[in-house]
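Lest this sound abstract, we think one record worth quoting, the chain in one-letter code, the fold tokenised, each line plainly labelled:

>
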Amino acid sequence: MIVNVKSSGYPSAASSSLSSVRSFAPIRFPSPPRAVRFDGSRTSRRLQVLAMAVKRSPKRLKYSAPRFTKDGSLLYVKAESGEDAWKLEPIVDLLKEGAVGVIPTDTVYAIVCDLKNPSAIERMRRIKNIEPSKPLSILCHSFRDIDKYTTGFPCGDGQGHSNIFRMVKHCLPGPYTFILTASKELPKQYIGYGTTTAKHASRKNVGVRIPDDAICQAVLEKMDAPLISTSVKCLKENEWLLDPVVIADIYGKEGLDFVVDGGVRVADPSTVVDMTITPPKLLRQGKGARLPWMVAEGDDEPPAE
């Protein structure tokens, strides 16, 4: 809305207060905040230098599928709290259309796509250059998702091992990845070998997460299924990328469709626990604390609880 203001139309007292406004100067009322396109030229000098310091892959990928933003550019949305959940509606729409993008979790940033979209899963593997045989993880909104896409947590085995689920529910949502046996509901493309026409391996295990992050949960709540995910790392070095501006600068050129900026993260990944064996085995110590019922490599089995 534009309003024209005449200086002669105000009383003298008001005129003095408006002396800095030129006659007939248009006044533009500010628009509400909205998602913006990522523009590296507008970032601070510090972030520009940081982005340049990260090595890039010299080989750019080409895709048969188009980018999912309207003008083919990367959609960059800044949302740092649960109150910004309304900004995520275009992100959810893109994901449901088959887009691949980056969202924050309670640990590091994750590249995500719709679990029900085979071509999106294939694009995710290409964008990050993930080996075809390497499994991915799923981000779940609740235990209901875990029950649907896995065979669940192990029960007591009658040999002194209690029902692990009673212990797990106290640390989720949280910074843990639990390895569980995949159910028949999990798409075959989850463990695909590169392309949709290639043969797929027999159904295996899957890492599941329920992140304790308001932005991540806001996206998951609006989806019809969990999100396939993989952590965001440098394309050549095995290091996490923690700054969303740097992520957009690097992966935007690789075919990424969007980035949700939830602030700079700390290099503290999730704690990974294999729940397919008894007792559960700690595979990687991360942000989540090691609990008494987790056994690490070389440890003696903990006493039965």
